[in-house]
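Sample pair:
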Amino acid sequence: MKIKEVLINNKAIEKISYYAIDKDDSQMLAIKNKIHAVWNNHFIDRRGYKKYIEACFLDVADADVITINTYFLEDDGTNLVGILDDSQVPDNLLSGLSTDRADREFHNGTQTIEVEYSSADLPFTMPDNCLLRRQTHNLNPDYSDKETYNVYVIGTVANVDALVKSENSSLSCTIPDGYTLAATDSFKLLYNSSDALQSCTLTQQDSFPYFDENLPDSVMHNLLLDKENIWYTFDITNETRTFEIPYVLGGVYPVEPLGANINLMYITETYDSSFNNTNVQNIYVQGRLNDVYTWAKSLKSDITLPMPDNINKPDEVMFEDDGAYVVQESEFVGNDDMDYLLFEDALEGLDDNRCIILEQEILEDEDYFKFTFDSSDNLTSVKLIGHLQNQMTRSRKVRRQTQIEHNFKYQDAITNLGTLATLVPDSSITLSVPKYDMNGFRYADD
């Protein structure tokens, strides 16, 4: 695995984000197996495809606290590999089932596999004001017959309600309060083996085809939430989960107006293990350190800042190398990754001119801040999410010899850099201090 990002809080690395180079990465598979052991194959999705963790955050204080936000779909190099295998489906159920279709459902909460029929055989006559979406059969995880099947119907609430009541007068068709029925939404009618209607529910697989089915209606039908990008935080030790769900871009205002010259990236809400909103809002922003910190201090004057507040501090000479002076400038500057060179005329008594390299403390395009607000809209923390730089450098001693060096532009301000080499053994790396020659070119740390 390789380090992707770090989350910095109060001058220390709090979390490290890793990504797998390949699907067989031993450390990433170990993390996935931990999650599977606690949450019963959570990362088999509703469509029946296994998923790999592409990247995850590990907590420095407890490596069993894992935050997942993206996945790889499993494939065999040509086709996606589904959990449904023709050889495992009982022979008495193969007739009429479309085992070669990808449109199959796997429900994590109930451990049910849905297999679509090639052609529907309805227990009722479909009224003219409703349409058939599809018909599926339910299997247990071991592919045994669950003896229930589903008929998916498209129509208005009133028309589907009339159909439901004609099949079972004690049932009705409803949708969540405030939800507007979309043209692609359908209703799931669950029947038992005796063709008796058991329930009618609004189904999300048509309007929201790739989301966790276990989301409650209050979350699933909140059209302002970007449910494709849920961040799951797993606490393996305590066997709990929490969730952070972003709003669609531009879907909501932050709880506090943004400060001057601050760029809003996205806003998220935090949910507990039961998907109850904790009323904790996170605002992700980019900007110059001066502007970001000015906004933070305007909200809470004594807020702990992730990096030293070097605003208005004089520049510092970091090191001297054969007449080349490397100077650390005092202020973080956003969206700028240049090293600045200055040349001075020779001082009295010296024959050579000097090359001064200003090693700018930089926040680049991939770096951003996380502002967290509690249920009373008070700012509680400001954290920096920064990425590791990987740069090929040449040796000054061996011809054409190069090596990859790793560094953070702000690494001199971090107090626990050693955790990068110890948290995950597969990702053990050494951070280098950039070195430059008299022409301003960077060379390898020999």
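Residues 36 and 166 are 43 Å apart (CA to CA).
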